[in-house]
């Protein structure tokens, strides 16, 4: 095998590891959302109750909930947080990552998701503990374990993408798709989730994600400092 082939093989392996780590994190978060049910984690958005055989899904209510999450949390908070963690992880800026973590702790829009986010983010960070050579991971984990940071799952996800050099654009799109789908599933239940009306609603939101992700990608030059989030 030539050096170029070896390098290509290494990059492919790292990409698969990154995808696996990111999917594990999102899978755990999605499962927890479904276990808790939407009403239990997000009362601020007044979501529809989990569907039952006696209570069919109210599609307009589901649309209102998903649109609120899309406009109030996903676009202005989650995606910029992931991009910020990615850049700080890529640059080894642990202090800035912890500052971003503390900033998110003051964001009221994340309060309904806080417990689930911290639980999943902390668990994924602990899985990364054997990566002794990744100083940013180790220092962030130490900060979380000492109570100086919360370990939000969005930041851990962004850090994971950076550690494995996974493309940010692809990672953001994957996160957005999986989270929107998980919230819809949590609100409807397995049977109603696959109802054509529900599927059409979810597909319509997913179709808007690529354009939203493009707006989230960082624009400053490599030598410019990355500012803290500007939450709208």
Walkthrough of the structure:
By secondary structure, the chain is mainly alpha-helical. It has eleven helices and no strands. The chain has one domain (17-37, 59-216): Urease accessory protein UreF. It has helices at 3-36, 38-41, 59-91, 94-105, 114-127, 135-145, 153-163, 168-188, 190-193, 196-206, 209-216. α3 packs antiparallel against α8 and α3 packs parallel to α10 (196-206).
Low-confidence stretches at least 5 residues in length (pLDDT < 50)? 3-8, 39-45, 47-54, 221-228
In angstroms, what is the radius of gyration?
A: 18 Å
CATH homology-level superfamily = Urease accessory protein UreF
- Coarse shape: globular
**N-to-C SSE string, H for helix and E for strand:** HHHHHHHHHHH
Structural class: mainly alpha
Count of the separate structural domains: 1
Could you tell me the strand content as a percent range? under 5%
Portion of residues within helices: over 70%
CATH classification, class level: Mainly Alpha
Number of strands: 0
What is the typical, i.e. mean, pLDDT?
Answer: 78
For the record, give the distance between the C-alpha atoms at the N and C termini, rounded to a whole number: 51 Å
Second-tier CATH architecture: Orthogonal Bundle
Instruction: Give the CATH topology.
Output: Urease accessory protein UreF
| Count of DSSP H/I helices | 11
Largest sheet data = none
Helix and strand layout, with pairings?
Layout: H1 3-36, H2 38-41, H3 59-91, H4 94-105, H5 114-127, H6 135-145, H7 153-163, H8 168-188, H9 190-193, H10 196-206, H11 209-216
